[in-house]
Amino acid sequence: MPRDARIYIAGHRGLVGSAVERALRRGGYVNLIDRTSRELDLRWQSEVEAFFERERPEYVFLAAAKVGGILANNSYKAEFIYDNMMIAFNVINSAHKFGVKKLLNLGSSCIYPKFAPQPMREEHLLTGVLEPTNEPYAIAKIAAIKLCRYYNEQYGTDFISVMPTNLYGPGDNFDLMGSHVLPALIRKFHLAKLSMTGDRDGIHRDEARYGRIPDDLLSSLGLHRDHQNPSLLTPFSSQPPKVVLWESGEPYREFLHVDDLADACIFLMGNCDYQQIGEFINIGTGEDIRIKDLARITSNIVGFEGTVRHDPSKPDGTPRKLLDVSRIHSLGWRSKIRLEEGIRTTYQWYVENR
Prior knowledge:
Number of helices: 13
Largest sheet: 6 strands, parallel
Structural class: alpha/beta
């Protein structure tokens, strides 16, 4: 991509979009286009087409999406499939209609079957049933992959799709009603550490920045919300705080720092076309870890020394999710940020942005 190319980042305020924007600016790209969701609702075709006609981007990073963890996916099924399909279809169609040179579509490893062979290769797509807890989101992402493929085949476009593994990093969503596992772990352990030291002012500041703390978590921290004054938290137990985590802790997950993903996306946009990449390509580290072990590492980094319990009555989701990353390795890209280093810098960002 030329340094002065007109580049549109859809979803520039999200975890992935903001990382892509940071990486592009570091790389000397000076002509970046972005819009907030209030300025441009990507679910509306007429708005999206008017934007593309007016701005004429040459390259597009499609990182806009409605995302969340198991709780959010289970609670907002209709929104997850509708919003994500509308966003993807409108942007991809407008990119074709208004002559975008290249588009990169961001997907998710949840597109793979629940019991796909491990590690998951690109050809495993649609070979089995999906994980029910994120099926609506996965279907929307699969549809976007197929749309890019068929536009390439019918119209000769160069639209590529990438499938990253579980992401984390600066700018993540730490709201416990919609966060993924790693930011949820960071926040829960941090709140428990504050509770152990009696820093209720710190807990208030955290809630003001990152969203309401669920009552069950407050209870495990030995705190009670005053219903007459919801902003007032009072201790009700002399027992030390504990952290209760969803799931058994036995599932395995792979984690990729979002700055590594941004680096991979820019590498692919600048060096590889649709013919080299194929229908889509996995992006990950090629290494996974048990959630139980991830919790231990995270608690050590945060500095919480109390009790950690798992609630096996909550759904585990897919038992293992590890991507086969041999294809992107063969193209010349590998991840660089080790997991412990990434968690440490993410926690530092979390604390500094409270």
